[in-house]
Amino acid sequence: MEPVETKPARVRILDAAHELMLTVGLARATTKEIARAAGCSEAALYKHFDSKEELFVRVLTERLPRLTPLLDSLAAAPGRATLEENLTGIARQAALFYEQSFPIAASLYAETQLKRRHDDTLRALGSGPHMPIQGVDAYLRAEQAAGRVRADADTYAAASLLLGACAQRAFAYDATETGRRPPVDEFAARLARTLLGGIRAPQEPAG
């Protein structure tokens, strides 16, 4: 592993921000504390990131399971694998993303002003929690055009159902008798199969 002191400042800042956002929460992870943990000045932090809000977005996109590149590649070239394989891959990546991002983002919802600032920054950066839904929708519409998804299927609703279930997995299972989330691979496969029952074109082979 590369020694901390030899890592570029931007990498150290992202690593420190990720760790602090996980351990103390987004609201309490100040730029001052992040800079200290990264071994740099707050002024140096602002050379790489305009605000804590931007830093939060970069942590999500660069330190967590990457969902957007997968969606972009699938939408650009539909038909490369079966629908079930592709949707299983999407569900797996999304479940891991929400599992790791939920502890970071949860504190946003406790402070209205903080959430408003973050929402404004997300819009300015062309990001936000709606983007994965649009990405899955774009992929399903591409498969629809290729004839593998039913012509009358509501692709946006299907995308919302898929990602909504993945987001639920991040916190809804902690209160169950077992107190454990279902294993991600099993969860993704079951979710994809169930969703396909409603959107697969008649001629599209199962599995």
From TrEMBL:
InterPro entries to which the protein is assigned, alphabetical: Homeodomain-like_sf, HTH-type_TetR-like_transc_reg, HTH_TetR, Tet_transcr_reg_TetR-rel_C_sf
Keyword DNA-binding part of the UniProt annotation: yes
SUPFAM superfamilies attached to this UniProt entry: Homeodomain-like, Tetracyclin repressor-like, C-terminal domain
Coiled-coil region(s): none
Pfam families in the record: TetR_N
Domain HTH tetR-type: 7-67
DNA-binding residue intervals: 30-49
Keyword Transmembrane helix among record annotations: no
Keyword annotations of the record: DNA-binding, Transcription, Transcription regulation
Domain of life assignment: Bacteria
The protein's name in its UniProt record: TetR family transcriptional regulator
Organism: Streptomyces rubradiris (Streptomyces achromogenes subsp. rubradiris)
Gene that this sequence comes from: rutR
